[in-house]
Amino acid sequence: MDATTDGSVFWDQAGNATLTFQHCDECGFVRWPAAGVCPECLGRGFTWKPVEPRGTVWSWVVYHRAYDKSLRERIPYNVALVELTCGVRLLTRLTGFGSADPVGAAVEATFEDIAGTGLVPVFAPAAGGTAS
Amino acid sequence: MTSQPRGAIRGRSAIVAAGNTEQGTVPGISADEIAVEALRLTLRENGIQKSEVDGLITCKSYGGFGIDTEIGRLAGLNPGYSATLDYGTCNFSLHLACAVIDAGLASTVAIVYGTNQRSSGNRFSHPLGRQDEASVYGFLNVAGPAGMAFRRHQHRYGTTERDLGHIAVSQRRYARDNPLAIFREPLSLDDYLAQPYLVEPLRRADLCMISDGGACLIVTSADRAADLSDKPVHVQGIAQQTGLRDRQNADQWMRPWIERVAERIYPAAGIERADIDALYIQDPTSVWVLQMLELYGFVQPGGVGEAFRNGEVGFGGKLPLNTNGGQLSEAYMWGFLHLCEAVRQLRGEAGERQLDGLRTAQYCSTFGFMKAASTILSTDRS
């Protein structure tokens, strides 16, 4: 993996229960997945900084089939895409929704070890209500 | 960025042959050999000499095969022009062939594709896109993004799983009349709804199969077409649009930017959408059919179930759709067989599935969340 596309800071900081992304030094654009170039202004400088751990659920699915043998023990499991307030779209897992439809719901990050690789962000209904 | 390229290609090139190998499990033959076998069968069935081919456009297949330099060597060709595309669906290959012919780089181009992904064990289990969180969260197979796109669609328009099911059911009905199709057993809407979820809200019938096979098209200039075929199929219009920003595009898996192709393709072909007699939509998942029916304006957003129930689209309806059965029922082939079917229908060679009074067909395809293309084919040179 190129140093410039190395997202390990994100995963390391998730271990500290923090959501951290590259911010462009020139235009401030927050990007994910990690890249060596800002897709807005093409600037090369960046700084990893924490963001507000809140967003909205764009959509979600439930895997009933394991497409890799490492996932056999996990099915059924859900995967969601959350649009963070900082603009990043993040793949994640939802927790705490019960039978409610999460699409469009306001969520906030919490951190769990779902794959035996350490803490990773998952998202639960935000305290204080739902979004659009 | 919003420019409207004029349809410079209109009526300047034509497909003079389309062919394929058997589809399904084809063991004991390499992907590249399957591609060359498709070329051999297509030339032979259409009475075209290999020496006519002076252009070769190949398509990379599973396992890194399908490179032009390898296939040219295997096929014993020294074409004046050759290239390999990293993505299939055949639309991108066809558009390049048209441009190459129009630029005078070659006069007769063979487009070939072969895969042995079934025999070699592909399960489409690689993560899609560049996100490395795909493996952490288990986001594998196109069913993930397609399922999310459908859920989002349901949230926005109230679309039901029954609405979506019409697509797989209609395509299976066509496949029953297609001897090439791999899935030909009956599939009713109730059968569909009784299938278990693979990636909820999607079922087995919403997802394409993994199969081996090869396909080939021969494309030439409209002026030369009559020398090579008495039934050339003319390329009336082509259009493309990309969404290369991928994850940074809003509603990325609903792919709203496909609409740009719809805005360009009909002016490029000099016709109206209502002139389309048969429609082909590349279908790794039924959700992509739903999206393109709407984005090209064939059905109202959220109206897909109604459009099938009212007989506006699909089997027995006003607008035939994927009359080969598509990737969902006929064979994988990364969409190449949609164009083969369109050519056969326009030439009146579709056997039991032959549509009446067909003059114009459209093929719409996408490369994942990155690229979209469409072609309008016609029996007439415009």
TrEMBL record, chain A:
Residues covered by the ChsH2 rubredoxin-like zinc ribbon domain: 18-46
Q: Provide the ChsH2 C-terminal OB-fold domain boundaries.
A: 48-112
Q: Known Pfam families for this protein?
A: OB_ChsH2_C, zf-ChsH2
- Quote the PANTHER family the UniProt record gives: BLR3430 PROTEIN
Q: What is this protein called?
A: OB-fold domain-containing protein
Please tell me the species this chain comes from: Prauserella cavernicola
TrEMBL record, chain B:
Pfam families given for it? Answer: Thiolase_C_1
Please name the InterPro entries in this protein's record: Thiolase, Thiolase-like, Thiolase_C_2
Residue ranges annotated for the Thiolase C-terminal domain, each copy included: 252-376
* SUPFAM superfamilies per record: Thiolase-like
List the GO molecular function terms.
Answer: acyltransferase activity, transferring groups other than amino-acyl groups
This one is known as Thiolase family protein
